[in-house]
Amino acid sequence: MILHSMRSLLASGDSSAILGAVAAALDRSDEAPFWNQKTLPYCEAILSVLLPLREQNLLFDPEGRPCDELTPELFLRWCDLLSLKSLAFTLAKSNDAGKLVRTKLTPEAASGYRPIDLETLGKYLSGYSVNLEDEWVDFPITNYNLHIGITSLISKILEGKC
After folding, report:
1. Half-sphere exposure of 155 (CA within 13 A, CB side)
2. Which of 2, 7, 83, 118 is 20 to 30 A (C-alpha) from 100?
């Protein structure tokens, strides 16, 4: 039931409904408060860009392939900190170009892109030492490892195991 509702929320719910479901799952979990405090802001940062892409029918995976809907599986793919960093740069370049770039979407679809507000995602990433000026500058491996733990918890939530 939880998996179905999360799938449904990701497919058509708004950010507050999705984050509310994640928060409720975290409250039910036996995870340490540390993990709970890290998970919601990460989900919020990811949703701040995936939901506008969903609304524009321009979702894609980390390899740039078009996706029809926001599924738990696609959400988890973007939970990788390196992938999310790449998404931030793709959307920044897309905002500048006035069309979606660096994807395998058709040129017709890409030209329908409307700029996405990157403030929430940018604040989140910069808080974990992700350089938002130079895409090729690495961030601390400890921050990557922390996000592996957060992603593991998100995975449990999306699978209904929390």
Report:
1. 12
2. 7
DSSP secondary structure code for residue 136 in this structure: T
Residue 16 domain boundaries:
2-158
CB atoms near residue 123 (< 10 Å): 13
| pLDDT, tens digit, 9 for 90 and up, residues 25-66 | 999 998 888 998 999 999 999 999 999 999 999 999 999 999
CA distance 33 to 68: 35
Nearest to 37 by CA among 161, 149, 156: 149
Domain count within the chain: 1
Helix 81-97, helix 33-55: angle, nearest 10: 30
Closest by alpha carbon to 95, among 56, 69, 124? 56
Strand partners, 66: 60
What is the Cα–Cα distance from 2 to 4, expressed in whole angstroms?
Answer: 5
Residues 6+ apart with CB under 8 A from 116: 49, 52, 53, 91, 94, 95
